Amino acid sequence: MLQAPHWFSEVYPHHGSAFSLKVSEKLHEEQSPFQRIEIYETEWFGTLMVIDGCTMVSDRDNYLYHEMMTHPALYTHPDPQTVWIIGGGDCGSLKEVLKHPEVGQAVQIDIDERVTRLAERYFPDLCSSNEDPRARLLFLDGIQWVREAAAESVDLIIVDSTDPVGPAEGLFNQAFYRECVRCLKPDGILAQQSESPLFHADLILAMRATMQQAGFAATRTLFFPQCLYPSGWWSGTLASKSPTGLSGFREAAARDKPFETLYYNADIHTAAFVAPEALGKRFHLAQ
Ligand code: AG3
Questions:
Q1: Which CATH number fits domain 62-286: 1.10.10.10, 3.30.420.10, 3.40.50.300, 3.40.50.150?
Q2: Domain coordinates of the chain in residue numbers?
Q3: CA 49, CA 5: separation in Å to the nearest integer?
């Protein structure tokens, strides 16, 4: 039986399934002012962070999510100089963003400082760029941040959040997207984690429709494997202010990227945006 204390399981009650990792030790557990955070040492996935019972990051597979939440958006934007990361307290997205020399400032805005403090202790690799002079770490409500920020002040907003329940719920609605539209420069892009294409296709479609209603002119969804998360198949959705903002990418620059990745490359970029038959027609409707 896959039971504590030897296994951590995230159960997906709405989808009759679960994902389990064999754990060797629980390293930490606390209730922060916002959420319950647990850290485990696993047998094969390295260290694991869990928030409110949901898997967030493991040493073994976080590169898939973090690379795909950042590089496709960064290489789609013509010249991303200023980047905000809303959420992302484990600093994994920040680390990938800072690999781009053209980025002059990356601001990470996570409501929960404890996630970052625990990541510094248990996921030092994800936090290895936190001292980069271009990085700014703020512990604030991202919704309030975009509400108060100046119009047309940012090139790229990456929403690296938990599922759209609890503290992250307000990051998936029209009011939030409207503020993002206002804060983005004319060629600005929003990139948001958008759950599982197998389990949450309706959510992805609804999100894209809401983005369009909020004033974004184009939306596109990209797909990647992520075995830690429900169904093992995950997605990110991009939205641009310009109608042509998502029609291509800086392919030559991506082919010649001046940094190492473990998953992302120019061919993966192109492939990731191709929707499988079962989803393609539905996603096309929202474009
Ligand atoms: N953010 C996406 C978490 C969603 C996972 N959902 C779940 N396990 N039910 C992860 C944060 C990584 N920086």
A1: 3.40.50.150
A2: 2-58, 62-286
A3: 16
Instruction: Show the CA angle centred on residue 250, arms to residues 253 and 274, nearest 5°.
Output: 120
Asked if 205 and 282 touch (Cβ cutoff 8 Å), the reply is: yes
CB 184 within 8 A of CB 155: yes
Nearest to 159 by CA among 104, 219, 89: 89
Tokens of 92: 């994994």
SS3 call for 273: coil
In tens, the pLDDT along 108-125 reads 999 999 999 999 999 999
Q: What global pTM score does this model have?
A: 0.96
Q: How many residues are listed for the chain in this entry?
A: 287
Provide the CA 220 distance to its chain's centre, in angstroms. 15
For residue 83, what are its two tokens?
């980047």
55 lines ligand 1 (CB under 6 A): yes
Q: What is the pLDDT of residues 219-232, one digit of tens each?
A: 999 999 999 999 99
Q: How far apart are CA 228 and CA 217, in angstroms?
A: 32
CA distances, 21 to each of 116, 195, 227 (Å): 23, 20, 11
Atom 10 of ligand 1: nearest residue by CA position: 56
Please tell us whether the domain made up of 2-58 is placed in CATH 2.30.140.10. Answer: yes
Tell which atom from ligand 1 comes closest to the C-alpha of 54. 8
